[in-house]
């Protein structure tokens, strides 16, 4: 399972930037701090190293959607992995059916979340 892409993979920001730490986004009130990690709770905006900064494009909605989809993907993957690793030895037929059902549901969630992430990445790169 590949790691979810970082926003800098999408935005083409500087991965070695010391302001945004390669995330491509900084705090709106403190442009030398990583977005959403600043205690002031300010909104995020593109870092100066991010091509979006020059374009002046606000893509906060996409950023939030991306974060949410990535989180969903992570959760679904964890659930899926836990079920996959479960030992089936000694399980009754009914327990096996139940496990199989949860396995399919988790896999379905994972695929859907993967698609959602891919769609947002696609929208970003198409800009
Ligand atoms: Zn930066
Ligand atoms: Zn701040």
Structure description:
The structure is a single chain. It contains 4 helices and 2 strands. The chain has 127 residues and is mainly α. The protein has a two-stranded antiparallel sheet. Helix 3 runs antiparallel to helix 4 (93-126).
Looking at this protein, list some descriptive labels.
127 residues; mainly alpha; two-stranded antiparallel sheet; 4 helices; elongated; binds zinc ion
Summarize the structure.
With 127 residues, this protein is mainly alpha-helical.
Give me the secondary-structure topology:
Elements: H1 7-11, E1 25-27, E2 44-46, H2 51-55, H3 60-85, H4 93-126
Antiparallel strand pairs: 1-2
Helix pairs in contact: 3-4
The structure holds zinc ion (2 copies).
The site of one zinc ion has 7 residues, from loops.
């Amino acid at each position: 399972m590949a790691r979810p892409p970082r926003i800098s993979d999408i935005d083409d920001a500087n991965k070695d930037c010391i302001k945004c730490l390669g995330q491509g986004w900084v705090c709106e009130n403190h442009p030398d701090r990583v977005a959403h990690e600043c205690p002031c709770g300010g909104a995020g905006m593109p870092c100066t190293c991010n091509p979006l900064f020059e374009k002046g494009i606000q893509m906060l909605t996409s950023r939030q959607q991306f974060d949410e989809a990535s989180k969903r993907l992570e959760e679904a993957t964890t659930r899926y992995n836990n079920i996959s690793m479960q030992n089936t030895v000694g399980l009754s037929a009914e327990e096996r059916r139940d496990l199989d059902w949860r396995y399919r549901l988790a896999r379905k969630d994972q695929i859907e979340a993967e698609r959602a992430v891919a769609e947002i990445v696609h929208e970003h790169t198409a800009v």
